[in-house]
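Reading a protein record of the kind used here takes only a little practice. To see the layout at work, look at the sequence and tokens printed below.
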Amino acid sequence: MAASRTDELVALAITTNARGYRHLVSLYKAQYHVDELQAEDKACVTAAVRALRVQDAAADRAPAPAGVAVLTAYTTDYSIGAACAAINKQYADRHGYEFYCDELPYDEMMSAIAPRRFCGWYKVAMLRRLLANLDDLDARGIGYLFWIDADAVVIDQDKPASALIAAAGHRELILAEDMNPCCLVNTGVLLVRVCEWSQRVWDDVWAMRRYFDVFFYEQSALLRVLKQRDEGLLDVQPFHSFVKRGPSGLKLFPHVAVTPHLALNSNRCRGLTVHVSDPARRIDTNHSADEDPHAMAEYIFHCAGRCDKARTLEAVLAAHGLDTSSLGLSQLKLVRSKATSAVPKE
């Protein structure tokens, strides 16, 4: 019984575009007129979830339109935002990508994301704003939105986003593992396919109230949403490439591709001079004793966790031959100024 019902449930899920254990439980109850699932029923649903995950991961995807829109945002009191945006705009212009940058006062950003209390949520707001009009993006030939955090810069200016998109099989979400083993993925750099799946996912992330003001904020919310959709990230253990016996290369899931941090979004880079927490100490960017001490960020350097981001950014850009003369890095404030008014309350 289990095998035939599993096949039927898989077929029904494909027809209705249902994914995730809870959704399949609802389908199962409606299809077989049961109120409570017994052990055999639960085994059937679990088998269907796994079968769908394998099938979705192996499915061929038509390439998205070739256009890319690079997005970033920062508050006017975030001193390195303009410098990073300038470098990233150079990259976008070089490859013919559209470039969007929201620069606004801190209070306005917090009002835009209220009752959320962490600026990282603004990327979700910006993604949702653009994804709200899929037809417009499609008409302009934009296949992917390329989010880059305000403290991250493209150091390999020759590498097109299309190389990573193709390697990831044109999946709907491409991002890197987190640099901290306490979290699976890092949302500092995202490639988001322009499609209805992305619309729904980021709407769900935005609505995830439990992480409005709880570490790791939008990263944790995204992981929760992907878990609900049975993408299978939590099934890969160990997950991070830099831990002992960790997997190398891309980790591919039904709609998500996760790169090693060095391949997309890392705080390890040539030119670093500032320790992650103590500016008086030389920097040690190794994440574990098993990691190659000479391996460095290959595509985008992210100042995540650096206590002196302006000084670090200047050293990194200089080490990669990028012109910093017009960026005013030596004059940048190293500590963010305080907001002028209270954060909006719920």
